[in-house]
């Protein structure tokens, strides 16, 4: 899919970026028809990312409607807990790489619920859970913030409210 200048796109691991330009970097690129997206991450206005149009793993940012639909579905999104720590970490990595909002919700929901249980037992959240929770939260909340035109903190509170709703229904 081709994107346009001004589009907000989601890039795996980096998160939401705005396409600033589409251009050839060098004269040789024109002959090879190798166009690049010039993008700025929403979280870091000073940074610029150059990605070849031909092999970009980008997707359009969620629309406002898609964002709200995702939030409303949080109670229904399953969290498949994996007891094996190595396999669990791999599932976290895969979800981050696929950059699928629903997979990010599943990670956030799973780790949040596990964290609540551990805290109730007087235990801390594991370092692995904390790291992937933060990555998944940042990717999802920034995207929802752009889609819904709301600050990240407000998105965070909304998501936690919906996760807590799903606990009541369990």
TrEMBL record:
It comes from Dorea longicatena. Residues 2-112 form the CarD-like/TRCF RNAP-interacting domain. It comes from the Bacteria. Coiled coil: none annotated. Gene3D superfamilies: 2.40.10.170, CarD-like, C-terminal domain (1.20.58.1290). This is CarD-like/TRCF RNAP-interacting domain-containing protein.
């Amino acid at each position: 899919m081709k994107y346009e200048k001004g589009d907000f796109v989601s890039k795996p691991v980096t998160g939401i970026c705005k396409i600033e330009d589409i251009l050839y970097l060098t004269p040789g690129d024109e002959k090879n028809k190798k166009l690049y997206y010039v993008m700025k991450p929403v979280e870091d206005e000073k940074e610029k990312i150059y990605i070849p149009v031909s092999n970009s793993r980008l997707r359009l940012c969620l629309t406002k409607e898609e964002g709200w639909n995702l939030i409303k579905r949080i109670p229904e999104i399953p969290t498949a807990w994996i007891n094996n720590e190595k396999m669990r970490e791999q599932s976290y990595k895969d979800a981050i790489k696929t950059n699928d909002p629903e997979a990010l919700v599943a990670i956030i929901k799973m780790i949040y619920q596990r964290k609540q249980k551990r805290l109730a037992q007087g235990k801390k959240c594991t370092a692995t859970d904390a790291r992937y929770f933060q990555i998944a939260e940042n990717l999802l909340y920034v995207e929802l913030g752009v889609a819904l035109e709301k600050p990240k903190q407000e998105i965070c509170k909304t998501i936690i409210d919906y996760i807590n709703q799903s606990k009541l229904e369990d």
